Structure of OBSCN protein:
Amino acid sequence: KEPAAAIVETLKDVTSHEGEDAVFECRLSQETTQDAQWFLGDVPLQSNEMNEIRVQGTRHTLILRKVTLEDCGPISFKVGQHTSAA
């Protein structure tokens, strides 16, 4: 069983203007097959035309495209027992 990955680089708060993209990044201690999930408030985010979720090795990136005022709120990233929020 693989050891649990820990969050080594936490999310930073991002300020964006309406119509811009907001980019959030988190880095883990290791590559993992564990489920990693992004949330806006309590809503789990999926990769689609509005949100892009990327994983490159240990770096996990969320891009909210052309943000609106409705996108304002806490973003969190969860993997295993670890959570980071911005």
Notes: The mean pLDDT is 93. The radius of gyration is 13 Å.
